[in-house]
Amino acid sequence: MDCLFCKIAGGEIPSEIVYEDEWIIGFKDISPVAPNHILFITKAHYANINELSENPKDLTALFEAIRKYTLQEGLSEDGFRIVSNLGVRAQQSVPHVHVHVIGGRDLQWPPG
Ligand code: AMP
Ligand code: ZN
Questions:
Q1: Which of 29, 36, 18, 45 is nearest to 81 (CA)?
Q2: Quick one: residue 68, left, alpha or beta (phi over 0 = left, psi -120 to 50 = alpha)?
Q3: Which end of the chain is more exposed for a tag (fewer CB within 10 A), N or C?
Q4: What pTM does this model have?
């Protein structure tokens, strides 16, 4: 399948990986919006967070990975935000599920 994040998961396209286990990788967003901006993806292809939610094992693995990474980096103490855009109106630009983990600065609310 011609999918950017499948290619990143498969190592075909380089990325700065900061977390990896059997099911998940976390890598630096190429266009960061904060000092810490990591994308967590499943190695298996799902189009979005709703499709992923049909597979509890991968869904749990994704949030486990985020928990481990944010504890390790001190983000759990400092505060961080997770975002997963779905579809056109939310401006999802890559159709392979990804959760943004954003931290390292004061964040505003509400988002745009
Ligand atoms: P979204 O717009 O929510 O679908 O998020 C897609 C994210 O992928 C954006 O924040 C992009 O900056 C990021 N992105 C696109 N291409 C790459 C890449 N090759 N490596 C790392 N991040 C990327
Ligand atoms: Zn994919």
A1: 36
A2: alpha
A3: C
A4: 0.98
Could you count the other beta carbons within 10 Å of the beta carbon of residue 108? Answer: 7
Q: State the distance from the centre of ligand 2 to the C-alpha of 69, rounded, in angstroms.
A: 22
Q: What is the DSSP string of 70-103?
A: HHHTTHHHH-EEEE---STTTT--SSS-EEEEEE
68 CA to centre of ligand 2 in angstroms = 23
In the block, residue with structure tokens 């505060």: 79
Cβ of 49 below 6 Å from ligand 1? no
Q: What is the pLDDT of residues 96-108, one digit of tens each?
A: 999 999 999 999 9
Binding site membership of 88 for ligand 1 (Cβ less than 6 Å): no
DSSP state of 21: -
**What type of residue is 46?**
Y
Q: How does DSSP classify residue 50?
A: H
Which among 4, 21, 26, 44 has a CA at the least distance from the CA of 82? Answer: 26
